[in-house]
Design a protein that fits this description.
With 89 residues, the chain is mainly alpha-helical. It has three helices and no strands. 87% of the residues lie in helices and 0% in strands. It is flat, with a radius of gyration of 16 Å.
Length: 89
């Protein structure tokens, strides 16, 4: 039963990633593109966690935390660049 649930979950997240890619290329503003990239990061984190559940190891949870930290720092850097024109002051 768990394998069916994980299969459905991975399929749903894969569909969400495809729709996010579509939104990334059709977004009218740069801020929409930044939000789309942040949403894609969350989807990739969900895929990594699902794979960790399927593999039965906690190592992938640490990888998911690293993706979360990297995604957060990237989003903040993009937003700071939009606001000030420079990342490092």
């Amino acid at each position: 039963m768990l394998s069916y649930a994980l299969g459905f979950f991975v399929g749903s997240i894969a569909l969400a990633l495809i729709l996010n890619l579509w939104r990334l290329f059709t977004a009218p503003t740069v801020t929409d593109r930044i939000l789309t990239l942040d949403t894609m990061t969350v989807n990739v984190i969900a895929l990594v966690v699902a794979y960790g559940i399927w593999a039965g190891t906690g190592l992938y949870l640490e990888v998911a935390v690293l993706f979360a930290l990297t995604g957060f720092v990237g989003t903040v850097a993009y937003c700071k660049y939009l606001l000030r024109g420079s990342i490092i002051e």
